[in-house]
Each structure stands twice: as structure tokens, then as C-alpha cells.
Amino acid sequence: MRIGIVCPYSWDVPGGVQFHIRDLADHLIRLGHEVSVLAPADDDTPLPPYVVSAGRAVPVPYNGSVARLNFGFLSAARVRRWLHDGTFDVIHIHEPASPSLGLLACWAAQGPIVATFHTSNPRSRAMIAAYPILQPALEKISARIAVSEYARRTLVEHLGGDAVVIPNGVDVDFFAAAKPRPEWRSEEARGVTADRAGGTIGFIGRIDEPRKGLPVLMRALPKILAERPGTRLLVAGRGDEEEAVEGLPERMRGSVEFLGMVSDEDKARLLRSVDLYVAPNTGGESFGIILVEAMSAGAPVLASDLDAFAQVLDQGAAGELFANEDADALAAAAVRLLGDPARREELRERGSAHVRRFDWSTVGADILSVYETVTDGTAAVAADERTGLGLRARFGLARD
């Protein structure tokens, strides 16, 4: 099958949508399909052979973050050229409602179109206001996928129609097979008798994006260190490191180690090394791919009780939850878990079992089933799938 995938966000700025598209493309190529991904990218960015650049992106505030998007006459021309040259059997557009390549591709594409909606935003005035502009493009979509029930609700409430829920995928074995790095492990994990109670906490995310929650974790850290003074916090991600620790007492700043941007291999090794992974995100999350990656690596997870995070963690059975933005609750839970190896081991076992449902062997098969459905050429199926109802029935998903 010839598959064209449209990425709305800049390929050279890491993010969950980009990682999902990259891993999906890799999975499909391994299965023997021909895949081309169209994405914004700076001219000097090294790209995989299957990625076609649509030109440089510009930063735009979007969904509580700053997204790097691509729009305009030049971008539209590149979209049309890519579509013409690709002669794709199916076009898979991610975030077609965002002001970027997805919307341009929706307008220009002919033939079967699958769209994946990642955004969870229950009160998006911009999306409601833009609906009259979006409607003609969205009506061309043959089948809709939402990465979570919360992304689906955003779609239904703001744009109408329905979608099948297929989560983001992860290569579970890649994370499970990673080797811990000794310098990132706690003394307890290395079998060393420590003079001071401690442990290693991990955080991965953009440092200067408040909704990723690092400020909440920093507010919790003094109380964690008061109870377990040997604790180390490892932070991986892009941002101003000095600004991140400016609220910490000077004597505690040595307990925080900034790793900067890390490779996929080092991210997996980091998650394999920590005693506890903390996800203090404050909002705007429709799924929580980092939680799935952490569970895949066998890291016990402590996360804010966002609806999407609770769903990924099986309502707290596969990882523990604390009250969103409550630094005291985070600190109390972290101290308790760091002092309870048996509970952490229980969370590792539950997480490792739970996460298998997110492996690409399952997620990729579901996405391919959607492609096959929209390319079967029957008018009846196509009409049914525009609302997502046929897909939900096909996959045995109950409607609300």
C-alpha cells in the first residue's frame, strides 16, 4: 500500500505527535508498505529518507503550548506537489484542524483520507470559531481516529461527527531491553548501602513549558529532600536550566542534574535507570506517551491525575496518581514510594503487563484496518465511516 502521512508540527522539534508519526512510518515500512511523510522542517535539518520537507515552520501559540506550524501559499504548493507525485492509496492526516499542513492537505487531497485527532481541549473557542472554515475540508475525511477518549470528546463537541479510539503506539521491547546507566541509578538500585535515604527521580519534557509541570516538581523537591536527603532528580529536555532551579534553595540545587536533550536510546536508558518516574503535567494532554514509555522501561510511574493520564494508567492500577498541581501531594507520594521498594516493584509488574496493549504490534494493526476499510471502494462503508460509526462497530467499541 502507498501511504502518505501529513505531520502538522516541525519535524526538528521533538513532540509526541512527531514521535507517533515517525514510529508509525517505521512500523509500516517494516511491514513492506511504501510510506512518505510530509512535515515542516528547517532546510538544514537531517531527515529520514521517507520524510519530505514542506519548508520552515513558524512558532504559533496552540493548545497551551507553542507549536511550530507551516501554512501559506508556498506550503500549499508543496502539499499539492507531494500529493501529485505520491499517488497514494490513502492519505493519513494528523491534526487536520490545526492551521498547518494537515488542513492544506485536506483541502487539496482526493481519494481516501484518514485523520487522527490528538488534541484534548474541552473549551477551545478558536476551534468553535473556525468550524465554518474547517467544515468543507473535514467533510472530505473518510475515517477519523482519536488517540484517546478525551481527544474524541474534543472532536465531537467542537467539530461534530465521531471517531474510533486508537491510542498512540510504543515499541515496548525497545524500552524494555534498554540497559540502565550506572551513573543514573541510585545507590540502593546498585546494591550500595547508602548513608542517607535517597533514590533517583526522572522527568522528561520541555523545561520552559509550564504545562509539562516541572515547576510543580521543583516546588515539591524541598519536602522530598527533607525526608530523603540523598534523592537525585534527573531532568531531560530543552529549556533554561538556571531559571528552572531559581526557586530552589542554593544548597539543594546540586540534587538536580540537567541532561539536556537526549537521544531515543538515552531516554530509554534513563527510564530504565530511575527508581521513580514523575509526570507532573498540569493540562492539555490527550494521551500521555511518556507514561507508556516509562512503563515499557519498567519505571514505576507517579503522575498528576489528569483524565488522560488516569486512563493510560488504568485509573491508578498501573501507576500512582496525585492531585493535579498539588506539590505537597506529589512530595508525599514520592517520599512514600521511594521508601517502599515492594510497592515500586508491584507498579513495575503491573505497568509492564498493562503497557502491552500500546505496542505497535497492536496499534499498527488497528490503524492498518482503518486504511483497508477506507480503501475498499464501497460507497456504503465510506458514508458510514465519515461519522466514525462504522469503524467503532467494526472494532467493537461501545458508544457513549
Structure description:
- Keywords: Glycosyltransferase, Transferase.
- The protein has 16 helices and 15 strands.
- It is an alpha/beta fold.
- The protein has 2 domains: 2-169 and 359-394, Rossmann fold, CATH 3.40.50; 172-356, 3-Layer(aba) Sandwich (Rossmann fold).
- A hairpin with a 2-residue loop joins β4 (58-62) and β5.
- The longest helix has 15 residues, at 16-30.
Kindly summarize this structure in a few lines:
By secondary structure, the chain is of the alpha/beta class. It has helices spanning 16-30, 73-86, 101-108, 125-138, 149-159, 172-176, 214-227, 241-245, 264-273, 289-296, 307-312, 327-338, 341-354, 360-374, 379-385, 389-394, and strands spanning 2-6, 34-39, 51-53, 58-62, 65-69, 90-94, 113-117, 143-146, 164-165, 198-204, 230-236, 256-260, 276-279, 301-304, 320-322. The chain folds into two domains: 2-169 and 359-394, Rossmann fold (3-Layer(aba) Sandwich); 172-356, Rossmann fold, CATH 3.40.50.2000.
Key features?
16 helices, Rossmann fold, Glycosyltransferase_grp1, single chain, glycosyltransferase activity, Glyco_trans_4-like_N, seven-stranded parallel sheet, alpha/beta, transferase, 400 residues, GDP-mannose-dependent alpha-(1-2)-phosphatidylinositol mannosyltransferase
CATH class of the largest domain: Alpha Beta
The count of strands amounts to 15
Strand content: 15-25%
CATH topology-level name of the largest domain: Rossmann fold
Radius of gyration: 22 Å
What would you call the shape?
elongated
CATH superfamily of the largest domain: Glycogen Phosphorylase B
Strand order of the largest sheet: 3-2-1-6-7-8-9
**What is the helix tally?**
16
Q: What is the SS-derived class? A: alpha/beta
Largest sheet: 7 strands, parallel
- The N- to C-terminal Cα distance equals 33 Å
The level of helicity is 40-55%
Organism: Streptomyces minutiscleroticus
InterPro entries: Glyco_trans_4-like_N, Glycosyltransferase_grp1
GO molecular function, one term: glycosyltransferase activity
Protein name: GDP-mannose-dependent alpha-(1-2)-phosphatidylinositol mannosyltransferase
